């Protein structure tokens, strides 16, 4: 094994990941905002949060052999720049599909059925008696779900939704006839999906094509009873348009596991609305999944340092 040193991004690696890395690694603390401290003697990078890793950083770490991302989405890494420099980039696909799909369903149910508002109310002095006219939500079972991005995670969302007797539409850049046959989902153009869905779930990667994919025009197409779920990346949604749509009741609600920026500034107007449920990027945050993500991150790192192909490479 190499005697490599590893810079750590953001707030640092959690104890469990440090333990998994073991004593052979010297962990160099690295803070994206303090660029001057980028450790030039590092041989590998683990990105744990979502710090920006661009060509400029790569050039400041001349012995860099591998970038190992703890997570599947690599929109914060300039993968093209890494490729040009022949630095492999690893990520953790597959292991988090189920937990992220579970979280999509959690947000769908929480938003539609007033779980968070209901919890606050049930704890408050205002809850003095059971009133059947209070907090009437939208029924998930039997409704129509539109999935934007029927990839690995989107497929898992579809399977769960079908178990709730939902009709499932999907939109991808390319129609996926195999998924249609295997799952019983129906392709729709983005506009038709927005018009017909009771719930719109964003499960696509963040790319130049999906940045601000959902904005004022798109909210205008959704049902007034429609609920938007974003479990992908914040910038897929224009947040000014989202606030306007929620505030004016153009749409009924939103469930957001990701935002732009993330976290939202504490005085952001979205935080004052009751028809939005926000969670702090918990898509893959379950014990089994996070443990597997750490293992894959370390395996990718070790392979790259040894000059071997990464088991899970995205370049
Ligand atoms: C992912 O895997 O992309 C999650 O968002 C955590 O980074």
Name the descriptors.
7-stranded parallel sheet; 2 domains; about 15% strand; 3-stranded parallel sheet; binds (2R)-2,3-dihydroxypropanoic acid; about 325 residues; Rossmann fold; alpha/beta
Describe this structure in words.
- The chain is an alpha/beta fold and 315 residues long.
- It has two domains: 6-95 and 288-305, NAD(P)-binding Rossmann-like Domain (Rossmann fold), CATH 3.40.50.720; 97-278, Rossmann fold (3-Layer(aba) Sandwich).
- It is built from eleven helices and twelve strands.
- The protein has helices at residues 15-21, 55-59, 79-84, 97-112, 115-123, 152-163, 177-183, 190-196, 216-221, 239-247, 287-305, and strands at residues 5-8, 26-29, 44-47, 66-69, 89-90, 144-148, 167-171, 186-187, 199-202, 227-230, 253-256, 276-278.
- The strands form three sheets. It has a seven-stranded parallel sheet with strand order 8-7-6-9-10-11-12, with helices on both faces.
- The mean pLDDT is 94.
- It binds (2R)-2,3-dihydroxypropanoic acid.
- (2R)-2,3-dihydroxypropanoic acid binds at residues 71-73, 96, 283-284.
Radius of gyration: 21 Å
Low-confidence stretches: none
Order of helices and strands: EHEEHEHEHHEHEHEHEHEHEEH
Oligomer: single chain
Please, what is the average pLDDT?
94
Strand order of the largest sheet: 8-7-6-9-10-11-12
> What structural class is derived from the secondary structure elements?
alpha/beta
**What's the CATH topology name of the largest domain?**
Rossmann fold
Number of domains: 2
Which cofactors or ions or other ligands sit in this model? (2R)-2,3-dihydroxypropanoic acid
Q: Major β-sheet, in short?
A: 7 strands, parallel
First-to-last CA distance? 23 Å
Q: How many strand units?
A: 12
State the fourth-level CATH superfamily of the largest domain: NAD(P)-binding Rossmann-like Domain
The CATH class of the largest domain, by name, is Alpha Beta
Provide a count of the helices: 11
Beta fraction: 5-15%
């Amino acid at each position: 094994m190499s005697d490599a040193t590893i810079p750590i991004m953001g707030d640092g690696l959690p104890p469990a990941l440090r333990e998994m890395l073991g004593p052979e690694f010297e962990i160099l603390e690295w803070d994206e905002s303090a660029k001057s401290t980028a450790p030039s003697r590092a041989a590998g990078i683990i990105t744990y949060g979502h710090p920006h890793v661009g060509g400029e950083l790569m050039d400041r770490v001349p012995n860099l052999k591998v970038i190992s991302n703890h997570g599947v989405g690599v929109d914060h890494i300039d993968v093209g720049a890494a490729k040009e420099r022949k630095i492999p980039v690893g990520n953790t696909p597959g292991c988090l599909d189920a937990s992220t799909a579970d979280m999509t369903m959690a947000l769908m149910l929480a938003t539609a059925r007033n779980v968070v508002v209901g919890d606050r109310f049930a704890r408050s002095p205002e809850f003095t008696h059971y009133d059947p006219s209070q907090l009437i939500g939208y029924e998930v079972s039997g409704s129509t779900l539109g999935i934007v991005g029927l990839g690995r995670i989107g497929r898992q969302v579809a399977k769960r939704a079908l178990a709730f007797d939902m009709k499932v539409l999907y939109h991808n850049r390319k129609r996926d006839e195999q998924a249609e046959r295997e799952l019983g989902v129906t392709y729709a153009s983005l506009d038709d999906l927005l018009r017909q869905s009771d719930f719109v779930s964003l499960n696509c990667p963040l790319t130049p094509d999906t940045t601000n994919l959902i904005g004022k025009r798109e909210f205008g197409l959704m049902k007034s009873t429609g609920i938007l779920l974003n479990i992908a990346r914040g910038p897929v949604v224009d947040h000014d348009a989202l606030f306007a749509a929620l505030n004016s009741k153009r749409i009924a609600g939103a469930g957001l596991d990701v935002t732009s920026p993330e976290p939202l500034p504490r005085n952001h107007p979205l935080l004052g609305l009751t028809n939005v449920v926000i969670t702090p990027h918990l898509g893959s945050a379950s014990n089994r999944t996070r443990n597997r993500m750490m293992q894959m991150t370390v395996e990718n790192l070790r392979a790259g340092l040894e000059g071997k192909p990464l088991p899970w490479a995205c370049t």
